Amino acid sequence: MPADPPARLRPGRVEPREIAELRALKVRHPELASAVDMQIELAELQRRVHSRLRTPLPQRLESEVAARIARGERLIDFDDLLIDWSDFRLVFRQTADILHRAGVIEHYDQTALQELARNGNRMEPLARDYFARTAHPDHYTPPPDSEPGMIDDVLALALKPFLARCAEVWGPRVPMKDWQRGWCPLCGLYPDFATIVNGDLFPICGRCTVHWPYDLDRCVFCAHDAIRSFANADGRYRVLGCSHCRKYLKAYDAQGAPRPVLPAVDTIATLPLDAAAIQQGYDG
After folding, report:
1. With 0-12 CB in 10 A as exposed, 13-18 as middle and 19+ as buried, what is 223?
2. Are residues 33 and 167 in the same domain?
3. How much is the pTM?
4. Does pLDDT of 2 surpass 50?
5. Are residue 66 and residue 145 in the same domain, yes or no?
């Protein structure tokens, strides 16, 4: 299937900052070119879908929000996302295309994923099942072996515009300071990145984009205070590795930085730190 043509900017329109920063990253680090190109395609796709989504309205009383926070339960339910299934099938199909062109998805899995996208009756049950299976990181169950490889990754990326739209509305209404857990209070995943602001850690959910405060000295994965930190050459990026569970989290140190954290950019810019962390015995 041919690639979709690249998005064109209208005359006078400014390119989104994360896209501009990704292009600049590619110039500075040509060895990351393939990863940058994939990220640009994903970011542009998600922005196009996100721009036309309906605005979800929070359907929780403050008392229910407080109760869920106290129990450690995520706040977003599947029906809160107001998914338009034609939009979802589009983003699912194009996400699989992008990952296939980048060499992330094998050809036979790509063929099976495209067949799923063409079967409109399968999309909603698959998405609901995935969201139910990822309600809490400790209760995750993998998809059946009969499903194509990488299906959870494609579903996560296809749901991201809908979850991010929901998080924009819900996030400001959530008492984040009361959460103090390592997984996302809105959608239930562990963070895949973080930022450090004035010495405080803010994990960032890669699925819904929300961030929340957390203790810099505690591991987001196991809550032990066995964190060892090391940084890249200029100190802008750090790895927070746990000596107890051997997992690690990458972070952008915003102290004196020229811009705020941009997860779409910073997760790619820190790929060399993943290799360094793995060499030191940490598990991503």
Report:
1. middle
2. yes
3. 0.91
4. no
5. yes
* Residue 261, C-beta contacts closer than 8 angstroms, at least 6 positions apart: 193, 195, 204, 252, 254
Pair 251, 216: CB distance under 8 Å:
no
In this prediction, residue 4 carries a pLDDT of 45
Q: What is the pLDDT of residues 114-148, one digit of tens each?
A: 999 998 789 999 999 999 999 999 889 999 999 99
Distance CA 148, CA 110 (A): 8
Domain boundary among 138, 173, 208: 173
pLDDT of residue 60: 84
Q: Is the pLDDT of residue 234 over 70?
A: yes
Calculate the CA dihedral of residues 133, 283, 216, 272 and round it to 10 degrees.
-110
Range of the domain at 243: 190-279
**DSSP secondary structure string, 244-257?**
TT-BEEEEEE-TT-
Task: Say yes or no: 107 and 226 in one domain.
Answer: no
